[in-house]
Specification:
The chain is about 70% helix and about 0% strand. It has seven helices and no strands. Helix 4 (about 85-95) runs antiparallel to helix 7, helix 5 runs antiparallel to helix 6 and helix 5 (about 100-130) packs across helix 7. The protein is globular. The two termini are about 20 Å apart. It holds the Pfam family MiaE. This is tRNA-(Ms[2]io[6]A)-hydroxylase. It comes from Flavobacterium quisquiliarum.
């Protein structure tokens, strides 16, 4: 369904399991950034009522996920560390088109968002199927389903609000680009790392 070029090696979970506190902290901050991204889309496109309504739903869900991860951190006696840079997302951001019409920029921002959700969904699936901790396996399975919903929402809105862009062609370009950079990741105990 996601069409990603490169699947995450399940052995990545061994790295994750070596530092659960780090993956949980990184994951919490990923959820906060996802909420901020949805709010940014609202800020720049406030005239599109349907989009604003759905982005507010996503922002709330992402903040709820942040709280869920934070609750797990507290229950385990761990500490929510400082915010981490997400080099993967920063590399994706560089690929986003920033010229053209406002609608073109919106479409590409939505594709950027869909790409992040697609990879997060895929990573959560790998975690849910391979992590030895049953609580975290269930947690990541539930979040995988949510991320898949966000992915389809962003992709659907990109198609709906495109101006002069062939969204299917541009999405393929995103898939190719993501495939070229993801080879640098999967080596650390972070969601995208």
């Amino acid at each position: 369904m996601l069409g990603l070029k490169l699947a995450t090696d399940p052995r990545w979970v061994n790295i994750v399991e070596s530092n659960i506190e780090e993956i949980l902290t990184d994951h919490a901050w990923c959820e906060q950034k996802a909420a901020s991204n949805a709010i940014s889309i609202v800020t720049y496109n406030s005239e599109i009522e349907e989009l604003v309504t759905e982005m507010l739903v996503i922002a709330r869900e992402e903040l709820e996920h942040f709280q869920m991860v934070h609750d797990i951190i507290k229950q385990r006696g761990l500490t929510l560390g400082r915010e981490r840079k997400d080099h993967y997302v920063n590399e994706l951001f560089k690929f986003m088109k920033k010229d053209g019409s406002r609608r073109d920029a919106l479409s590409d921002r939505l594709l950027f968002s869909a790409m992040i959700e697609a990879r997060s969904c895929e990573r959560f699936k790998v975690l849910s199927e391979n992590i030895k901790d049953p609580e975290l396996a269930k947690f990541y399975r539930d979040l995988m389903i949510s991320e898949a919903g966000h992915y389809t929402t962003f992709l659907g809105f990109a198609r709906k609000y495109q101006d002069n862009i062939d969204i299917d062609k541009r999405w393929k370009e995103w898939i190719e680009y993501e495939g070229s950079i993801i080879t640098n990741y999967g080596k650390s105990e972070t969601v995208h790392g």
